[in-house]
Amino acid sequence: MTARIRNAPRVLYHMVRADFLERVRRYSFLLTLAVAVYVGYAAFAEKIVLRLDDYRGIYNSAWLGGLMGIVCSAFLSLIGFYVVKNSIQRDEQTRVGRVLATTPMTKRFYTFAKSISNFAVLASMVLVMGAAALLMQLLRGEDPHLHLWPLLAPLILFALPAMAFVAALAVLFETLPVLRGGVGNIVFFFFWIFLLAAGGIDSLNNGGTRTAFQHFRDFTGIVAEMDNMQTAVRKIDPTYKGGSSLNIGEKPPMRRFVWTGIHWTPLMLESRLFWLLAAAFVAWLASFPFHRFDPAREWAIRRKQKPSSAETPATEDRTVLLPKAERFPTHLSPLQRRGNTQRPNANPFLRLVVAELRLMLQGQRWWWYIVAAGLLIACLVSPLSASRSGVLLAAWIWPILIWSQMGCREARFNTQPLLFSCERSLGRQLPALWAAGVAVTILTGGGLAIRLLLANDWHGFAAWFAGACFIPNFALACGIWSGSSKMFEAIYTVWWYIGPAHQIPGIDFMGTSSTSGTPGIFAVASILLVAIAYYGRRVRLGYI
Predict the structure, then answer these.
(1) Domain residues of the chain, as ranges?
(2) Which residues contact 473 (CB under 8 A, 6 or more apart)?
(3) pLDDT in tens, 329-353
């Protein structure tokens, strides 16, 4: 039976404080804050416009608070997950978890503490957005009268419960064997899309009344906030049809109206309390799969347990087996002893590319190769339009966990001193790694390239080729500069969904249609990414 922790609130405070201070000193946190500040500036410069058909609100405290509440609830709930989803992994890597495992701390106490520390990090980002809203009102000058409650209420009652749920969800993902890695980073994005859709965003333009169930499933609170804004517009314009959108880069509407803030109802407050309780439930649920830093309790490790001492040959037996290695000439290098696959006269760079490719594919199960081969065949036999707009999307999302290893594998396995001390590491290993990444891209989506060449669609082939170079270059730059696979997995999944999946010109790096493909832009971007990756590796090697 586990003993109770003495002075548990004080222990909880120190755990959360130490974890929070360690997080805010990381580059990922500073980068996210920079993005949050830029979002505030974009709203100030009307690059991000919340519009209700031909209307937008006067920039008073209520409207700016509502705008920031929507931005925080929607976008920071996505970005923040990837920022905080590393707390348990960090305790494992730094071996702090082994120290905590010797204390009377329970699993439930630990998961709650981690959820609270995650929430503290995300709440600090919301605080920055609140300060940005306050500064915007003072600088815009459309309404100089400052009202703190209408300004801060959407951030407190909408954004913070959403941040609390995301913070607990990050802990749950880290305790589940399958979701703690790159798979979890991808799954969360689609789960986030599901949460937004479940909130009823698609029904905003219908202008219908909302039931209690619809209030409680509104994860971000966006729908409730938009409903209040739409009600205010209908009072001044009975012809208003209920349209609403959050636009980026579009010209703001010319018509203005005064919005005094959200009309809070008991049902709305109860729905926000529901998501706080849901966050506590998820934190409690995470304690069950949490292994408490005991490797023997992890299923994945149990499968790879070493044989017992009874099954291990004795030392004398192993020494008898050693002379069998003498069948290879002792004057040859280890690579030369492997037979015809790696002959002494073979191209050394090609051997290095093959070695990098084998490292990237190591650990993949047989079914992974079957799916990859099926997608390649589907690109060859499907109609050209379907192959370009549908099959290629699946073909170039399937190897995302392969690409995400590029540039960060040595940091993950602590092999940087060994790799960086090799002769011409920068001039040989980095190009070989890049070539292996491009090979994965070509092998999975090469069927479409053949179809485009046979159809003499040179613009489509140029868009495909630019995408085939852009993806591994982007993965390499993200891996080198972040030292983690999470940055590429998060950004690429979102970009893949917004750009190629919706065929939006300018950000469709796959060229899924003849109108959305912009090969010139991504060809230049690929060259810049290679330069960024090369510079980052020089920094890691200490040349700069």
Answers:
(1) 8-299, 345-541
(2) 434, 525, 526, 529, 530, 533
(3) 444 444 444 444 445 555 788 888 8
